[in-house]
Each structure stands twice: as C-alpha cells, then as structure tokens.
Amino acid sequence: MYASVNLVKSTNTKMESKKLKYKKLDGISEKQLSEHHDVLYVGYVNKVAAIDKALKSVNLEGVNATFSDLRELKIEETFAVNGVKLHEAYFDNLGGNGLPSGKITELIKRDFGSIDSWKKEFMACGLAARGWVVLAFDLDTKKLRNVVCDLHNQGGVWNCVSLLVLDVYEHAYFIDFATARAKYIDVFMKNIDWADVNSRLKKFKVE
Ligand code: FE
C-alpha cells in the first residue's frame, strides 16, 4: 500500500510530544500504556527532532539511492514522522465507550453496508496487518477505506495531500536514460505542469 493521501486524526504539527488524556484503559494497564506512550511514542518525537537537526547540515552533493546521509535521514524521517502521527491518532481515538455514534456511523453504513460488516473487516485487517489498520477517508473517491500498513513508512506520509509526484522507479526512465537518473530528474523538472499542481491545492482545499 503506497497511498499518498491518508487521513488519520493528528493535530500535532510541531512534533512535540502530546500527553495522554487518560492513565489507563478498560483492559489496558497503566504499565502497558506508559511503555507505549512515554517510551516508544516519545522516542519517535525525539527522533524527528534529531533528524530535523541532522538535515540542516546534511551534504546534498554526491547523493545516491544505495547509501547517502540524505537518503538515510529522509527514509527514517518518514518512519519517525509517521510513527508520531499514527501513535497520536491511536492514543487520541481511545478512551471512549466503544459505541459508534455521530456522523461517522452514517459514512460507515454508506460505504460498508453496516457497522457490523465494517467492524468485521476492520478487525480481520487487525490480524492481517503487521503494523497498523486505519479507517481512512480517500480524498479522491470521497469514500472510507480500511487501510492496512505494515510499517509506518509504507503508507506515504499520513495526513499529507500529494501535490507533486516524481516516480524514480527505474521503469519510469530506464529506456531513455539508462542509469542516468539525475538527467531524468532534470527532464522531469522541466516538464512539470504547475497548473495541475495548483489545481490539486484547490481540489484538496490546501492553503
Ligand atoms: Fe505503537
């Protein structure tokens, strides 16, 4: 799953750790929660800060896709940032009574037929996933979807809307450019339709 538009509930844009709104949950102990939140989640927040700091002085020359400091930092940035966003959404969407209510119930019934059939698939996805299951709203189809995600960074960057997309898989350039990826990227840049990029801003109401 390489969806680039994924909605999870996260309002933390500064990547400072958010406090838990409860100490324990019905059936989940304080110890379990504090290890998960105070150690693991806060660890991701700290790593985002460390990566941001390292990116300020990273060498942009001689970058390549096998190993370069920029590559390693950017790969782990997606892992850490998505780790923060997904955990915040997870912790925030707990602490209630578990009874579906409000507008989301209408959307679930519309897109899955019934709350029960959504729940059945969502819970089965919990067994099929290696990392996360997200009930997500697809901004293109305007429909709900249960999304399975094996790693924090195998789902794009959560809550981001794709505005400009560059494909650097070899299939996109190898016939014309062989191994000269930089040349292909130059050509890509010269061919961008910025009007289309701007239309995406409009489409997704991004300001
Ligand atoms: Fe976790």
Helix content: 40-55%
Mean pLDDT: 89
Largest sheet: 2 strands, antiparallel
Q: Low-confidence segments, ≥5 residues, pLDDT <50? A: 1-5
Q: Going across the major beta sheet, what is the strand order?
A: 1-2
Question: Treating each run of at least 4 consecutive H or I residues as one helix, how many helices?
Answer: 7
CATH architecture of the domain at 161-207: 3-Layer(bab) Sandwich
Terminal Cα span: 27 Å
* Counted beta strands: 2
What is the H/E order?
HHHHEEHHH
The CATH C-level class name of the domain at 161-207: Alpha Beta
Strand content: 5-15%
Structural class: mainly alpha
Q: State the fourth-level CATH superfamily of the domain at 161-207.
A: Iron/manganese superoxide dismutase, C-terminal domain
The general outline is globular
Radius of gyration: 20 Å
CATH topology of the domain at 161-207: minor pseudopilin epsh fold
Q: Layout of SSEs?
A:
Layout: H1 30-56, H2 69-92, H3 103-112, H4 115-128, E1 132-138, E2 143-149, H5 174-177, H6 181-190, H7 194-203
Antiparallel strand pairs: 1-2
Helix pairs in contact: 1-2
The structure holds fe (iii) ion.
Fe (iii) ion is lined by residues 36, 40, 87.
Could you explain the architecture of this structure?
This protein is mainly alpha-helical. It has a domain at 161-207: 3-Layer(bab) Sandwich (minor pseudopilin epsh fold), CATH 3.55.40.20. It is 48% helix and 7% strand. The chain has 7 helices and 2 strands. The protein has helices at residues 30-56, 69-92, 103-112, 115-128, 174-177, 181-190, 194-203, and strands spanning 132-138, 143-149. The protein has a two-stranded antiparallel sheet. Strand 1 (132-138) and strand 2 form a beta hairpin. Helix 1 runs antiparallel to helix 2. It is globular. The model is unreliable at 1-5 (pLDDT under 50). Bound molecules: fe (iii) ion (FE). Fe (iii) ion is lined by residues 36, 40, 87.
